[in-house]
Amino acid sequence: MPFSATRRYAALLLASAALVGGTATGAVAAGTGADALAAYPCDVTMSSTGRLTAGYYSGNTVVPSSSQVTAAGKEAQCLLQYQGYNPGTVDGIFGSRSQTAAKRFQSTVNDACDTNLRVDGKIGEQSWPYLRRLYC
């Protein structure tokens, strides 16, 4: 499977950081180039209050990165996939396919929930709460 230039670049950066002893902090997952292109499993569960989670990131503020593997990226990709939006491979890198899925999700939420999410393909403070539940 061919990888996009962004993913190849991200894998190269992560591999370089690993070679020089670099570490990642916050929601960024440390890993080698091979880990950066790995497909992660999605085990989405719903709490008794109706909140969805895939177990990678529990917050509602971090915007997934389009250039590096993040826990927020894996979480958003899993939740989009669970709700029927195809983000592509769940690899933690929120690239163009994930952003397209997020735009479709945001547009659907706007129509179904009579809200005004920015349809920008970024999962941030406004979109996370809707992504974490199956209803308005």
Q: Classify the secondary structure makeup into a structural class.
A: mainly alpha
Number of strands: 2
**Helical coverage, percent range:** 25-40%
> Largest beta sheet, briefly?
2 strands, antiparallel
Strand order of the largest sheet: 1-2
**Uncertain stretches:** 1-36
Within the CATH hierarchy, at the fold level, what is the topology of one domain?
Muramoyl-pentapeptide Carboxypeptidase, domain 1
The average pLDDT is 81
Report Rg.
15 Å
How many helices? The count is 5
Strand content: under 5%
Shape: globular
Q: Identify the CATH class of one domain.
A: Mainly Alpha
Quaternary assembly: single chain
CATH architecture grouping of one domain: Orthogonal Bundle
Question: Separation of termini?
Answer: 37 Å
Secondary-structure element string: HHEEHHH
InterPro entries: Peptidoglycan-bd-like, PGBD-like_sf, PGBDSf
Pfam family, one: PG_binding_1
Protein name: Peptidoglycan binding-like domain-containing protein
Keywords: Signal
